[in-house]
Design a protein that fits this description.
Subcellular location: Cell membrane
Membrane topology: Multi-pass membrane protein
CATH architecture of one domain: Orthogonal Bundle
Helix content: over 70%
Keywords: Cell membrane, Membrane, Transmembrane, Transmembrane helix, Transport
Shape: flat
CATH superfamily of one domain: MetI-like
Distance between the termini: 87 Å
Protein name: Sugar ABC transporter permease
Family: Belongs to the binding-protein-dependent transport system permease family.
CATH topology of one domain: MetI-like fold
Order of helices and strands: HEHEHHHHHHHHHHHHH
Number of strands: 2
């Protein structure tokens, strides 16, 4: 009777997988894994394009058209080319509003950074209970709705019963007795508006800066203390340069937010009753388009404001692209 002798592979050889299609299945699995991140990005990218892409494209087209109330009811829009932009750039009032907006943005953003960083440094040096109380107060201020915050500051700056005038008058400044901040002129109005904006923006800067300060290596600070450096010099020459990326990002974000501020200015204008002398770019665009019905001109103003924002924030785009390389 014949016997079957099992075949053995020569020594040193690796057995091959003889199951059909195993390699194709593995390649298909790897291909699916490679495309999975792109598939996950399709939905959010599509939503962003739908929510922002179409309105931006529509706004760009409208900026080259004469688009008013009649076009809202179906009348074809007339193509006017760069006429809207020419009218804007040759309008003296546009430049007055633009300069006013830039000054307001520089002051509000600058003071927000100074106050926010100062509070963050203070939080590092106080007792735990005081620090927790400060953090809670900042969170409450940050969570307060904009309109509610504006209403609070209106009451505080009221010319009859406001606490601001009471404190200033009590300090011997009799000129503030009955002083109407919102109707006394452009500067007092913008002081109140900047105060509201700074009050609402400071918590984010403070908390972000405090988080960055908590990550600073203590050995560098201790080495400077051993060398005899004072606390202000340590803060200015060692600590702040270490957290410089966070500070730059916060500063540029403040510029973006303060440049396009709208709700605070618009709400205060309702009390002041004066828009011509208190307009910033955000309210100027609203009054030209929504209130005035000239949507073509308002779209052109919005595009000019967008270009201004891009010009002021190009550094922020570079920071994002270079992952924090600030050179």
């Amino acid at each position: 009777m014949a016997t079957l002798t099992p075949t053995t592979s020569p020594p040193g050889t690796v057995p091959r997988d003889s199951s059909p299609g195993r390699g194709d299945v593995s390649r298909r699995a790897r291909r699916r894994q490679a495309f999975l991140p792109f598939l996950l990005l399709v939905l959010p990218t599509g939503l962003v394009m739908l929510a922002l892409g179409y309105p931006m494209a529509r706004q760009l087209v409208m900026s080259f058209q004469e688009f008013g109330i009649a076009q809202q009811f179906g009348q074809p829009a007339e193509w006017v080319g760069f006429a809207n932009y020419q009218a804007i750039l040759t309008d003296t009032y546009f430049w007055v509003v633009t300069v006013r907006t830039l000054v307001f943005t520089a002051v509000a953003a600058g003071l927000t950074m100074v106050v926010g960083v100062g509070l963050a440094v203070l939080m590092q040096r106080v007792a735990t209970g005081v620090r927790v109380a400060l953090q809670l107060a900042l969170l409450f201020a940050w969570a307060t709705p904009v309109i509610a915050a504006v209403a609070i500051w209106k009451l505080m700056a009221d010319h009859r019963h406001g606490v601001v005038n009471a404190v200033l008058s009590g300090a011997g400044l009799t000129g503030f007795d009955g002083f109407h901040w919102l109707q006394a002129g452009t500067t007092p109005f913008l002081i109140v508006a900047a105060t509201v904006v700074i009050w609402a923006s400071t918590p984010l800067v403070t908390l972000a800066t405090y988080a960055a300060l908590s990550q600073v290596d203590e050995s560098a600070v201790e080495a400077a203390q051993i060398d005899g450096a004072s606390t202000p010099r340590i803060l200015w020459h060692i600590v702040l340069p270490i957290i410089r990326p966070v500070l730059i990002l916060m500063a540029i974000l403040q510029v973006i937010w303060d440049l396009r501020v709208f709700a605070q200015i618009y709400s205060l204008q309702q009390t002041a009753g004066n828009t011509t002398d208190t307009n910033l770019l955000g309210t100027y665009i609203y009054q030209t388009g929504i209130a005035g019905g000239d949507y073509g001109m308002a779209s052109a103003l919005a595009m000019v404001m967008l270009l201004l924002l891009l010009a002021l924030t190009w550094r922020y785009v570079r920071i994002l692209g270079r992952q924090g390389d600030l050179r």
